[in-house]
Amino acid sequence: MIKKTEVAEQTMAFEFEKPDGFSYKAGQFADYTLIDPPDTDKEGNTRGFSLSSAPYEPNLMCTTRMRDTAFKRVLKGMPIGTELELDAPYGSFTLHNNVARPAVFLTGGIGITPVRSIALQSVHDQTGHAIFAFSSNKRPEDAAFLDELKRLDESAANVTFIATMTEPENSHQPWDGETGFIDQDMITKYVGDLSTPIYYLCGPAGLVKAMRSLLNGAGVDDDDIRTEEFTGY
């Protein structure tokens, strides 16, 4: 590990040196295994995390909510320079090829992590995809990469970042963006015709289920919906 940073309340990003010859697609994930950890529990020494770094970036980054588990206590307390085992890449939560169809990401909480990778890589590669990234959190303090994705929205013509807060009244920061849960009206406001995009649902299982139900109710075909559920993070 070469760097660790708090990117939101109770959320940390960990950066690792990229092994020689290692390549992956934006949106894929990796299994990280602790080597001889000083503390362990029944959840074990391996976790799967999205690669929140974009492939063009020099380091590999994973980002996670910090729960009180042995794995996360060890990860948080790890000295810079500690090595982990990496088993990667896995997953097909990657950007579709047809540039004519927009990509709409509907995410909650830490589900924004693969979206950071995909959006940054798409802008870097100038793929031309229209990207709409919806991110739902309770408060701005809870939203990982909030400022970075706002800047990307401002600088990249093809990226629209829509953050919404469900409990802005509990925030210590002012919030003038969207509020409430992601719903059909909110998506339509930014995306327009809901039958055109490919949808990517990412976050806790409850959010993924709710978004799929919403989209199906709006007439979106299951073939146009891709999901990545985050459980037990």
How would you explain this protein's 3D organization?
With 233 residues, the chain is an alpha/beta fold. The protein contains five helices and twelve strands. It has helices at 70-77, 113-125, 146-155, 184-191, 205-217; strands spanning 3-8, 11-17, 29-34, 46-50, 59-65, 84-90, 103-108, 131-137, 159-165, 178-179, 198-204, 225-230. Strands 10-9-8-7-11-12 form a six-stranded parallel beta sheet, with helices on both faces. Strands 1-2-5 form a three-stranded antiparallel beta sheet, with no helix packed on it. Strands 4-3-6 form a three-stranded antiparallel beta sheet. The protein is globular and about 50 Å long. The two termini are 20 Å apart. The mean pLDDT is 96.
List the helices and strands and how they pair.
Elements: E1 3-8, E2 11-17, E3 29-34, E4 46-50, E5 59-65, H1 70-77, E6 84-90, E7 103-108, H2 113-125, E8 131-137, H3 146-155, E9 159-165, E10 178-179, H4 184-191, E11 198-204, H5 205-217, E12 225-230
Parallel strand pairs: 7-8, 7-11, 8-9, 9-10, 11-12
Antiparallel strand pairs: 1-2, 2-5, 3-4, 3-6
Give the gist of this structure:
With 233 residues, this protein is α/β, with parallel strands linked by helices. It has helices at 70-77, 113-125, 146-155, 184-191, 205-217; strands at residues 3-8, 11-17, 29-34, 46-50, 59-65, 84-90, 103-108, 131-137, 159-165, 178-179, 198-204, 225-230.
